[in-house]
Write a structure and sequence with these properties.
Number of helices: 10
Largest sheet: 2 strands, antiparallel
Distance between the termini: 117 Å
Oligomer: single chain
Strand content: under 5%
Radius of gyration: 26 Å
Length: 271
């Protein structure tokens, strides 16, 4: 029989070009996979990983190799362990803004309008990119969240609708497929959820405002779903212009109310 050169060795074993895959190489493969999942925003800060047994089965690696990979990811600050709770994705966004800067954001109203202007520019670009680069599955995610917004709109409690609003915008950012924009904007939305810039729940308390916001999100969704980058961007910009005006009206109303209370207290004191 013809010999297979370097493919078959003299004793029928593996030839020299082939080497055993070491556990260390399996560990590096796991590290690379988890890194990409975090980078692409699929694994999110604070998300709990499956159990060691389940994860080793999913990845097809031994537990020792998995433990080595987890330890490496922990050393690099990407994963963190909680006693008796498991392994979690680390708060990789935690250092995006210092506590001192967050305090400044929350105490100066001009930061509100800069924040809205920043979102207008970034999310307009994200919607444009999502319409162009988003996969059919990306667009399905966006549409699914919008349909949930429509359902939540029928409820009296606006909290679900407000949360879905943030999820809708983040889904568009994810569909833009730019990992730098993704992590930067996720950081901005974390501050929004904390109420650093303004109480976003207030935007949904007025029924007319809620109706307007839903119509604006419908237009954004339509632009993205029709893969019309210009229409998607224009819809986002119109939405953020409305948010900006609403914020200005809220701030003005709060100032007027404070002045009115002073007048009332003064009038009562004259009685």
């Amino acid at each position: 029989a013809r010999r297979m050169g370097h493919i078959i060795g003299p004793v029928g074993g593996l030839a020299r070009p082939f080497q055993r895959v070491e556990a260390e190489e399996l560990s590096r493969s796991v590290v690379a996979q988890v890194e990409l999942l975090i980078l692409r925003g699929i694994l999110r800060p604070g998300e709990r990983l499956p159990s060691e047994r389940e994860l080793s089965d999913r990845l097809g690696v031994s537990r020792p190799s998995l433990r080595e990979a987890v330890a490496d990811l922990q050393d690099h600050g990407l994963l963190t362990s909680k006693p008796n709770a498991g392994i979690y994705v680390a708060d990789v966004l935690g250092s995006a803004f210092s506590p001192a800067l967050i305090d400044l954001f929350s105490s100066h109203e001009e930061a509100v309008f800069d924040y809205v202007a920043f979102r207008r520019d970034m999310e307009g670009l994200a919607a444009e990119r999502a319409a162009h680069y988003g996969s059919n599955t990306d667009l399905e995610v966006i549409a699914t969240i919008f349909h949930k917004m429509e359902a939540a709109h029928q409820k009296r409690d606006p909290s679900d609708e407000a949360e879905l609003d943030a999820n809708f915008h983040m889904a568009i950012i994810e569909a833009s497929h730019n990992v730098v924009m993704l992590h930067m904007m996720r950081s901005m939305y974390d501050l929004l959820r904390q109420g650093v810039f303004y109480n976003r729940q207030m935007m949904f308390k007025n029924r007319l405002t809620r109706d307007m916001l839903l119509d604006q999100h419908r237009a954004i969704n339509a632009g993205v779903q029709s893969r019309d980058p210009k229409a998607a961007r224009a819809a986002v910009e119109a939405h953020m212009d409305y948010v900006k005006q609403s914020m200005a009206d809220q701030i003005k109303a709060a100032k007027n109310e404070a002045i009115a209370r002073q007048r009332l207290e003064h009038e009562r004191g004259r009685a």
